[in-house]
Design brief:
Elements (H helix, E strand, L loop, with lengths): L9 E9 L5 E10 L4 E5 L6 H9 L6 E6 L4 H4 L3 E4 L11 H5 L1 H5 L4 H14 L15 H14 L4 E5 L7 H17 L3 E5 L3 H7 L2 E6 L4 E7 L14 H18 L2
Parallel strand pairs: 3-7, 3-8, 5-6, 6-7
Antiparallel strand pairs: 1-2, 1-4, 8-9
The structure holds adenosine-5'-diphosphate and magnesium ion.
């Protein structure tokens, strides 16, 4: 990537969040995420990781502070953001193709553009042969691929992923991690990812943000300076192991805070 732009793509300034009259979930959060970064949030359950994604996407408002996405409010930036959840959230009565085309339908894209784009992203994630199948006929990994394809079909500038591979076995997860990075080489999106797997965080990210709980706040930031493209072999290297060990240590620190 070339020189960093002056304005970060995601900017949190002094963001505080409580739900209703509940306790403080996030306290004075400052975040700057640049275009093209792959940032992963890790931290104990309940520390506010999902809340950060919901704030970025405008699904919930901050209680205090300001959030800017490409200089806009999250609500105004909404159309440029795609969200992938842990359960693939496919509609059971629609085929894979029609599930993948859903976002474009909601955007009222012209029918020929919709057809072309849907076919292209299905091919990108390797689901072209099961396009007419229904979600119940797919494995967990394939469902997640369909969910990724749907998110990418709208050509997002920002991809938010909340533990998308947590329900998959380790091999499927590793493969999807590799695919996700391959898609990132082909498309231009910035990613904010949430996981409980330190190894997954190291493999995918340009930067890991470790959150501490009660209230949620940044405990540490770990840059991941491993070169791209990253392939399966990277996981066996000493640099990878060292980063996983370091991130695990920092995460344990955050737990006892
Ligand atoms: P994480 O994703 O790190 O596990 P969450 O962001 O889901 O954490 O939740 C952080 C805290 O906010 C938790 O204590 C959770 O119970 C609370 N919380 C999350 N969503 C809501 C909501 N819609 N209403 C009330 N409390 C919520
Ligand atoms: Mg969560």
């Amino acid at each position: 990537m070339s020189a960093a732009p002056a304005v970060p793509q995601i900017e949190f300034a002094n963001v505080t969040k409580s739900y209703g009259t509940g306790r403080l979930v996030l306290s004075a959060l400052d975040l700057n995420i640049q275009k093209g970064e792959f940032v992963t949030l890790i931290g104990p359950s309940g520390c506010g990781k999902s809340t950060v994604l919901k704030l970025i996407s405008g699904l919930t408002p901050p209680s205090d502070g300001t959030i800017r996405i490409d200089g806009m409010t999250p609500k105004d930036a909404r159309e440029t953001i795609s969200f992938i959840f842990q359960d693939a959230t496919l509609l059971p009565w629609r085929t894979v193709r029609d599930n993948v085309g859903l976002g474009l339908e909601l955007e009222r894209a012209a029918s020929d553009r919709r057809k072309k784009t849907t076919a292209a992203v299905l091919e990108l994630v390797g689901l072209q042969d099961v396009a007419e199948a229904y979600p119940r006929e797919l494995s967990g990994g394939m469902k997640m691929r369909a969910s990724i394809a749907r998110a990418l079909a709208t050509n997002p500038r920002l991809l938010l992923m909340d533990e998308p591979f947590a329900a998959l076995d380790e091999m499927s997860r590793d493969r999807l991690n590799e695919e996700l990075l391959r898609l990132r080489e082909e498309q231009q999106w910035t990613a904010v990812f949430v996981t409980h797997s330190v190894a997954e965080a190291v493999f995918l990210s340009t930067r890991i943000i470790v959150l501490a709980p009660k209230p949620g706040r940044v405990h540490a930031v770990i840059p991941v300076d491993l070169p791209f493209p990253r392939t399966a072999a990277l996981r066996e290297g000493p640099e990878f192991e060292a980063l996983v060990a370091r991130a695990s240590h920092v995460l344990r620190e955050a737990l006892v805070q």
